[in-house]
């Protein structure tokens, strides 16, 4: 186990989601499973499908044995730092709220003059026929 204490980000995972460099995130720990792909009992396609992202759910859904879990020790790189991802999500949420407010404001700016025009023509129609 190379306990380098290094932390990895979402960008690191995405950059290493290819057959040449395959990182997996399992339980907030990052593993380089590139060399294990050919030995994986379920085939390399299973690993490729989860490469460069959080594979915890897929790993647990299969019900890996204790032996499989022990193999992970050899591929351990470091911990996952999701603070940037959390900050990005918070910023993204704020941006969506702002865009929503702008969109609803834009709708109001469209319907308000339209309502005025309808009222004007209705007034013209009824006052002219009286």
TrEMBL record:
Its main location: endoplasmic reticulum. The keyword Transport applies. GO terms for molecular function: heme binding; metal ion binding. Residues 5-81 form the Cytochrome b5 heme-binding domain. The chain crosses the membrane at residues 108-126. SUPFAM superfamilies: Cytochrome b5-like heme/steroid binding domain. InterPro entries: Cyt_B5-like_heme/steroid-bd, Cyt_B5-like_heme/steroid_sf, Cyt_B5_heme-BS, Cytochrome_b5. Gene3D superfamilies: Cytochrome b5-like heme/steroid binding domain. The keyword Membrane applies. It is found in: Endoplasmic reticulum membrane; Microsome membrane. GO terms for cellular component: endoplasmic reticulum membrane. Keywords: Electron transport, Endoplasmic reticulum, Heme, Iron, Membrane, Metal-binding, Microsome, Transmembrane, Transmembrane helix, Transport. It is a single-pass membrane protein. Belongs to the cytochrome b5 family. This is Cytochrome b5-like heme/steroid binding domain-containing protein.
């Amino acid at each position: 186990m190379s306990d380098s204490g290094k932390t990895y980000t979402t960008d690191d995972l995405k950059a290493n989601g290819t057959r040449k460099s395959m990182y997996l995130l399992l339980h907030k720990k990052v593993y380089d499973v590139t060399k294990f792909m050919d030995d994986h009992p379920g085939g390399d396609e299973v690993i490729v499908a989860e490469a460069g992202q959080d594979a915890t759910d897929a790993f647990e859904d299969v019900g890996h044995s204790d032996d499989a879990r022990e193999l992970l020790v050899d591929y351990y790189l470091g911990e996952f730092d999701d603070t940037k991802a959390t900050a990005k999500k918070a910023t993204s949420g704020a941006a969506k709220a702002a865009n929503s407010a702008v969109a609803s404001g834009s709708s109001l700016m469209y319907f308000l003059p339209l309502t005025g025009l309808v009222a004007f023509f209705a007034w013209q129609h009824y006052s002219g026929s009286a």
